[in-house]
Amino acid sequence: MSELVVVPLHIGGEDVAAGGGTYVVVNPSTEKPFGEAPEATIADVQAAVDAANAAAPAWAATPRRERARLLHALADRLDQERGRLVPWLGAEMGGVQNGSAGRTLDVAIEAFRAFGERANLDLSENYAPRVSMGEVVSGVARRRPVGVVAVIAAYNAPLVNTSTMAGPALAAGNTVIIKPAPQDPLTTLELARIATEVGFPPGVVNTVNAVDPEIGRELVRNTGVHGVGFTGSPTVGVEIAQAAAAQLKPVLLELGGKGACIVLDDADLDIAVNVLSLTWRMHSGQICGAPTRAIVHESVRDELVRRLAAVAETLVVGPGDHPQTTVGPVINGGHRDRIEGYIASAREAGATTAVGGSRPDVSPGFYAAPTLLVDCTPDMAAVREEIFGPVISMITITEDDEAVAIANDSDYGLVNYVVSGNSARALSIAERLESGVVSINTPQSAGNGIEEMPFGGRKLSGFGRKGGIHAMLAFTEPAGIVLRS
């Protein structure tokens, strides 16, 4: 790709040059420019809000089957554009093309198709006739779209973050304004253009984008935006929730994670390795559901460390477009330095590096080594805080209650894991874990692996649930209607 990829804003069905000009998007594998992204202004935000509101009544009145058809058409078009979009994703997010970049597109396609199916659902609730105050009455609760939904995505999986929020919002009859993460916005901006090309009416799918955080703040606090779906850090999530609360807007927040993987003394260690190595293999650990805390029974600890070290030797760190690469770069140099800082602080606090720990000898690119820290304690920053990189911190335990207590001693509660040969024992532990999702003897896959299930977190991991009809409910409000017979 010798020429820079340039994608404008898309507002009201038209490509629009951003009022603030453009900025350069850098390929994390090469440290070279890949594209130019638009820098929106407050005026651009207002234009998108106006377009979305103008389109909202007609889109809400559009028959469910037509909304379903368009969502399927969008999914089909994304699939057809795979040969163009996967290299874009790999270049801007640093994803491995036969790994996280390709999977990101796959999940987006699956999400739009799934919500295309759910767009046909009647979410109404009917109430049988009964006597009230001397009259016979019956009732129905209709689900009405909230109106205009702002979808604000994180950089780690841009199309996944967008499709799993915008998909249900559109299926439920809302119009959307999508704000990608500024680090890798180009493919997401292109998504809006494709949506218009496949037939979504003008103003139903709009975009704004900017490095300036004030643009996101304006989008959230604008009175013409009626709901917010956000994927990102707890710090920003709390700020969004506070801003939305001032107008009592509904919010759906999928925030950070510090996944605990409890490995019991009866565990199949091949399964445990498969689960834990997800932190290394999937987008260099830049996933909120990664099992970054290994809470391991002392009887299997040494063998598990040995097996993880053996797996680490097979990993190939390098550019995302190389066919042999299994671990690509992290998003930028600043984030790489942050990851390395956590490793250094853990060592200073007494942890030992069993795997990795030193910067890979790969240049150019922002590469962080797949790392396993052992002899960790629950109070270490590397154990408590979200590193968002390919780093596993291991804590040794002796019994189940201790494992549960350590797993729950966290500000986060998104995805936890249990590995055990005894299903009843594993389920008993899973039901005590303070997280939105628990995976037993399986790695996380595309959220939680079952698309109908709710996906979301507790504590600083978020508020509300994606998956199935749950996000459609988040972006609708019930309206009760009582009828006298």
Automatic annotation (TrEMBL):
Domain Aldehyde dehydrogenase: 21-477
Keywords: Oxidoreductase
Keyword check for Lipid metabolism: no
UniProt similarity note: Belongs to the aldehyde dehydrogenase family.
Name of the molecule in the record: Aldehyde dehydrogenase
